[in-house]
Write a structure and sequence with these properties.
Length: 320
């Protein structure tokens, strides 16, 4: 185990961005995966950005990785010096470069020779099922392919800390399972923070769960930590109710494969994680925080089958 990973991650993050006030304490042991859950706007992506050195923090922040201080009184290690592998929600690939060149870029930034970086990049792309797309520019890849390139870029330099912001959101069910397996095998002794809306990610990867919430609606976010088994799961069984949203229309949001569902002239669902295909059993929509009683996504079906954008939101909603 490298020295950077012996003590894992310990952090207090203090961040103020607009109306958001985040004061988050967390520890992630070597080889441990902690899932970050919570409604949109509670600072999950902000927390990852702060840990990576990309989001300014406020006094009181203390970030230590493997015993080394990254942020603290009089100390701020720039992002390039933190050895963090980060998958952004919007990916941030270089569209004019090939998949291979994007992955090799991260390796070259750590000092790897060009030839070795290309070989290592091809190895990661092969593990993630992209061997035949290595030479293709990333702006010509599908959303799911681009997301796998971003994950390969994060893993290839052997980071001391892995920060993943919805890394499987654009993948179909079969590819998600395969990629989760690759990630599980690659975790090793590094601490991992995983932002997700998918309970299957938590079930398959996470050891603990940290749920962020703004219970008072004041913008002050609080965190509750539980074990994976104690975390709330998706609704199922006889307690499941259904709210039918007939006559809705889909519209694309910014980012990768994100779609809103509008009913009656207003957006009632926040975003679709896997593309608007409600007839596929594992399509997931995330409820708007104002109507959700749980941070978990809800399964969606066509009702009736073949009716297009009409969908049913299973449980967890007071009203639409």
């Amino acid at each position: 185990m490298s020295a950077d990973r012996q003590d894992g991650l310990t952090a207090r993050l203090v961040v103020t961005r607009g109306d958001l006030h985040l004061d988050l304490r967390l520890t992630v042991a070597p080889g441990q995966v902690v899932a970050l859950l919570g409604p949109n706007g509670t600072g999950k992506s902000t927390a990852l950005g702060a840990l990576a050195g990309l989001v300014p923090t406020a006094p009181g922040t203390d970030v230590r990785l493997g015993g080394h201080v990254l942020d603290g009184p009089g100390v701020h290690v720039p992002s390039a010096g933190r050895r963090c592998g980060l998958v952004f929600q919007d990916l941030r690939l270089f569209g004019h470069l090939s998949a291979r060149e994007n992955v090799a870029f991260g390796l070259r930034a750590t000092g790897a020779p060009a030839g070795a970086a290309r070989v290592a990049a091809d190895g990661w792309l092969a593990r993630l099922g992209l061997v035949d797309r290595a030479a293709v520019r990333t702006d010509r890849l599908s959303g799911g392919q681009a997301q796998r390139v971003a994950l390969a870029r994060a893993l290839a330099p052997d980071p001391a800390l892995l920060l993943l912001d919805e890394p499987f959101a654009s993948l179909d069910a079969a590819t998600r399972r395969r990629v989760r397996g690759v990630l599980r095998a690659a975790i090793g002794s590094r601490p991992v923070l995983l932002v997700t809306h998918d309970p299957e990610d938590v079930r398959d990867l996470a050891d603990d769960v940290l749920t962020l919430a703004d219970p008072d609606g004041t913008g002050t976010v609080r965190a509750t930590r539980t074990t994976r088994d104690a975390a709330p799961g998706p609704a199922s069984g006889p307690d499941v109710a259904a709210v039918v949203l007939a006559g809705g229309t889909a519209r694309r949001l910014g980012g990768v494969d994100k779609t809103a569902l509008d009913v009656g002239g207003r957006a009632v669902l926040d975003r679709l994680l896997t593309g608007l295909r409600p007839s596929v059993p594992d399509v997931v929509l995330v409820a708007d925080p104002g109507t959700a009683t749980s941070p978990w996504p809800r399964r969606v079906r066509e009702d009736p089958p073949g009716s297009g954008p009409a969908a049913a939101l299973a449980a967890g909603a007071r009203a639409v």
